[in-house]
């Protein structure tokens, strides 16, 4: 929560005045004869091009022009103004230097524009796109000491491909090219495009690399264009090898020996010709692998599982890259280097060398942090983490951690008490699938078998204590860089309460002994301190292409969690009929839960983007359970959810937590979750980014809960959607992103129906509204 004492109107007026001044006064700093360059415009004169084609060509040409004008904001140039009003610093440091040359921006003048060079760029780019007769002219438009350049482009007719030829000869390499010519990117009827020609050369190169032609290069291919064979604007293409292609590039190579230096250190091992070590003592032979590992740091079989090449195999670029990627994904090597050295030039054989530099196997890391959140908690946390990356000499990773944390309530209207947490966990990760069946993966990522065990002690002082035990066993594997699977064959959670205080019990059963302080009963709080036993499988699938340099990217994660199904069926459990079954004296949970998280990112330009997210989740208790376990329910609100509301304070549905829980802490959850978020992000200066966002959503219950009226999902769910919006500031320091989001609620679902939109009934300028409704979220990283 934040209190704003300065008038909004004064801030807005001052900001507007600053922008107006910066707009009007930049030209007064120019010297005699100078003109401020405000950018370039391109006009395309061509009657045969479609509107979309014109727009695409114009946008591409615009990007080629240099220099770029001074950056602007709403048509104004505040960075240029800062440069102009800051006097020249005496030293290359200090506040003046920082303001003038880091925040400020040097003026771009008309004299900096080389119009003849830009015209050549325009013509050259146009020709590369098939406009062989392109012409360009330029004109300057000036007013009030500002100038822009207008480029007029007459591209002429665009040449189309009339025929694609792959001349034949008797060589082996030509035979391979002939085998894939039907998959060419060069299609008859398509426009001539240099980028497509480059892609075609890469396609041929990739195929030949996978057929043993290790020394081949895309530069060995030439695509000749003949535009004289027809009167129409068409071009005939000839795809062939250059005459000066080296003979070695035309030869297929096979693998002779595979030699692994498992403990390679450039500082300790002398290098021979081609960078291969002279020292080959202590050679072990394992399944035709030659392994040099004098200190026996690794079991030889991990290389047999990881490396794809075998003696006599034709060289294959795909297997080459797979082997390198799998070695890296083992997580035990700091550097991975690969060399191929000709061992028999007559029979076209070479040896494959793998030079591997291990990382330090063990590491110990201590982390401390301070934190605050929107629920008025401030606290700290300490973590001690130990990792061994090669525990059994087979790249098995074992991780152990102990941690402690505390959260102290420093304000707010609710008595939530303080929170103390501490615990420990351990994980063993084996770089293969440990199972009674064979699992073959041709992925570049090594599949892993994971074992986890952990314990956490949580105490809400003066309320209750919970002991949380968790263990799981499962598999993690990636098909490729975009697709990941995580299957927990068994995931077990045991929650045991202790020291439940009279204060908390009073909140559950209610207390009307004091007419001035009546506490209504709230039986739903009982589920927080019930013993819980949850066991069953869980699976999640993740797809993302956000790492690709594309304009539109996606992220999707879907998960399924099923608990107690077999045990419930075998025992005939039916909690609604009074037939709840127990295991080890504890009623086990039976439910099915599913969640989908979909995100879409669109780059508007190089400095701005739009990010959106939609989450849909449902948990359905059945058989041995009437309600979902509290720890498995959904919640909304907080710095990574609906930011205009504090964490876990929304829902379910239209239920008003202020009524039933007026003297207690907010902690609401539900069985169904709907949430959508949208955020516009823009970079305004290096590490400084701004955002504008809107969030909406809520949670609901599957079954009616008398203690939380209005919480059940119904056909009127749309009327119970909470809405919030705000602005944010993000400081991107590369190693971390510090995020500050200021949000306000626009629609509050627990208000009376018809009065839920806040701007219909609240005075936004009042201090009371600012105090109760402006929420400041401080967090690390982006919310999604």
UniProtKB/TrEMBL annotation:
InterPro entries recorded: Bac_surfAg_D15, D15-like
Boundaries of every Bacterial surface antigen (D15) domain copy: 589-759
Sorted UniProt keywords: Cell outer membrane, Membrane, Signal, Transmembrane
Signal peptide range: 1-25
Pfam families from the UniProt entry: Omp85
Locations listed in the record: Membrane
Ranges that cross the membrane: none
Superkingdom field: Bacteria
Protein name per its UniProtKB record: BamA/TamA family outer membrane protein
Source species of the chain: Kaistella gelatinilytica
């Amino acid at each position: 929560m934040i209190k704003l004492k300065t008038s909004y109107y004064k801030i807005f007026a001052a900001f507007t005045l600053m922008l107006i001044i910066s707009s009007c006064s930049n030209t007064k700093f120019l010297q005699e004869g100078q003109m401020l360059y405000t950018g370039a415009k391109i006009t395309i004169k061509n009657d045969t091009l479609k509107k979309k084609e014109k727009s695409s060509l114009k946008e591409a040409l615009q990007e080629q022009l240099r220099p770029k004008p001074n950056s602007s904001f709403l048509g104004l140039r505040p960075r240029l103004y800062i440069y102009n009003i800051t006097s020249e610093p005496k030293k290359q440091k200090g506040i003046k230097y920082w303001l003038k040359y880091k925040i400020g921006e040097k003026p771009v003048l008309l004299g900096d524009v080389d119009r003849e060079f830009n015209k050549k760029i325009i013509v050259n780019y146009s020709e590369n796109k098939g406009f062989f007769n392109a012409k360009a002219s330029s004109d300057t438009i000036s007013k009030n000491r500002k100038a822009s350049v207008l480029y007029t482009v007459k591209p002429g007719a665009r040449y189309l491909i009339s025929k694609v030829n792959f001349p034949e000869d008797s060589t082996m390499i030509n035979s391979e090219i002939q085998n894939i010519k039907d998959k060419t990117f060069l299609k008859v009827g398509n426009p001539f495009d240099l980028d497509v020609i480059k892609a075609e050369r890469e396609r041929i190169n990739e195929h030949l690399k996978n057929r043993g032609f290790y020394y081949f290069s895309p530069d060995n291919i030439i695509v000749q264009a003949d535009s004289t064979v027809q009167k129409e604007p068409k071009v005939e293409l000839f795809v062939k090898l250059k005459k000066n292609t080296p003979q070695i590039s035309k030869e297929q190579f096979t693998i002779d020996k595979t030699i692994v230096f498992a403990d390679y250190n450039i500082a300790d091992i002398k290098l021979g010709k081609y960078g291969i070590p002279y020292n080959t003592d202590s050679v072990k032979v394992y399944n035709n692998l030659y392994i040099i590992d004098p200190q026996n740091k690794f079991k030889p079989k991990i290389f047999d599982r990881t490396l794809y090449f075998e003696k006599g195999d034709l060289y294959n670029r795909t297997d080459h890259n797979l082997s390198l990627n799998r070695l890296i994904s083992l997580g035990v090597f700091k550097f991975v280097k690969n060399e191929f050295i000709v061992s028999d030039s007559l029979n076209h054989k070479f040896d494959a060398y793998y030079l591997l530099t291990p990382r330090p196997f063990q590491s110990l890391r201590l982390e401390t942090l301070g934190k605050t959140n929107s629920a008025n908690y401030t606290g700290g946390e300490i973590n001690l983490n130990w990792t061994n990356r090669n525990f059994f000499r087979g790249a098995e990773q074992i991780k152990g951690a102990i941690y402690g944390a505390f959260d102290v309530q420093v304000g707010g209207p609710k008595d939530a008490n303080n929170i103390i947490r501490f615990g420990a966990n351990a994980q063993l990760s084996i770089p293969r699938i440990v199972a009674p069946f064979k699992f073959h993966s041709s992925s570049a990522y090594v599949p892993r078998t994971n074992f986890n065990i952990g314990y956490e002690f949580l105490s809400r002082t003066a309320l209750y204590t919970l002991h949380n035990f968790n263990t799981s066993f499962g598999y993690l594997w990636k098909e490729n860089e975009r697709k990941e699977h995580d299957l927990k064959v068994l995931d077990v959670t045991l929650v045991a309460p202790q020291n439940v205080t009279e204060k908390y019990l009073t909140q559950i059963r209610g207390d009307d002994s004091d007419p001035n302080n009546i506490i209504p009963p709230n039986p739903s709080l009982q589920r927080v301190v019930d013993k819980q036993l949850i066991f069953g499988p869980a699976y999640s699938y993740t797809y993302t292409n956000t790492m690709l340099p594309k304009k539109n990217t996606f992220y999707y994660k879907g998960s399924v969690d099923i608990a107690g199904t077999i045990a419930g069926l075998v025992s005939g459990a039916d909690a609604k009929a009074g037939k709840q079954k127990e295991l080890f004296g504890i009623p086990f949970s039976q439910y099915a839960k599913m969640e989908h998280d979909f995100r879409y990112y669109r780059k508007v330009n190089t400095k701005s983007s739009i990010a959106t997210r939609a989450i849909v989740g449902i948990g359905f208790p059945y058989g041995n359970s009437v309600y979902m376990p509290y720890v498995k329910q959904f919640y909304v609100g907080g710095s990574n959810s609906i930011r205009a509301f504090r964490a876990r304070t929304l829902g379910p549905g239209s239920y008003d937590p202020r009524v039933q829980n007026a003297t207690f802490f907010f902690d609401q959850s539900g069985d169904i979750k709907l949430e959508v978020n949208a955020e516009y992000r823009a970079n305004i200066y290096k590490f400084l980014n701004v955002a504008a966002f809107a969030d909406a959503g809520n949670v609901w219950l599957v079954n009616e809960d008398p203690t939380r009226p209005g919480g059940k999902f119904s056909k009127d769910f749309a009327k119970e959607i909470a809405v919030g919006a705000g602005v944010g500031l993000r400081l991107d320091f590369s190693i971390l992103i510090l995020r500050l989001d200021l949000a306000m609620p626009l629609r509050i679902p627990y208000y009376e129906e018809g009065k839920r939109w806040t701007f219909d009934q609240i005075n936004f300028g009042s201090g009371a509204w600012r105090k109760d409704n402006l929420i400041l979220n401080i967090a690390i990283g982006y919310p999604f």
